[in-house]
Amino acid sequence: MEKVTLDKSVAISLEYDGKGAPTVSAKGYGYVAEAIIQIAKENDIPITSDENLAALLSQVELDSEIPESLYEAVVQVLIFAYQISGKQPELKP
After folding, report:
1. What angle do CA 17, 25, 63 make, to 5 degrees?
2. Membrane spanning segments where (predicted)?
3. Where would I find the H helices in 5-92?
4. For residue 81, which of 40, 48, 33, 37 has the smallest C-alpha distance?
5. Domains, the chain, ranges and CATH?
6. Distance between CA atoms of residues 24 and 11, nearest Å
7. What is the pLDDT along the chain (93 residues), one digit of tens a residue?
8. CB of 81 within 8 A of CB of 40?
9. C-alpha to C-alpha distance for 12 and 15, rounded to whole angstroms
């Protein structure tokens, strides 16, 4: 399950495979952010807007797990993504 969080200048894509913490799978600013958003739309990946969370996630290195301090905020994003996609997370040990 992937999720894209964006504001007007930055887009962050999160990926969660059911084990460990979600990872930042893509991030970009300006035209790159617009491309990330377009790809998400073309692939029916849920998109939400949260300027504060996007700013925090933009500080996480690409392909790195999100820090524990952002778990609660990102859980809310993942819940949103699963609800609108109609899917259930596959939790793995």
Report:
1. 90
2. none
3. 31-42, 51-57, 71-85
4. 48
5. 2-85 (3.40.1690.10)
6. 11
7. 566 654 457 899 999 887 889 999 999 998 899 999 999 999 988 888 888 888 899 999 999 999 999 888 888 887 777 777 777 666 655
8. no
9. 10
| C-alpha closest to that of 9 among 41, 36, 46, 34 | 34
Query: Left if phi > 0, otherwise alpha if psi is -120 to 50, otherwise beta: which for 24?
Result: beta
Q: Kindly list the distances between the CA atom of residue 58 and the CA atoms of 10, 66, 85, in Å, as whole numbers in the listed order.
A: 8, 10, 24
Q: Which has the closest alpha carbon to 3: 89, 81, 84?
A: 81
d(CA 59, CA 28): 11
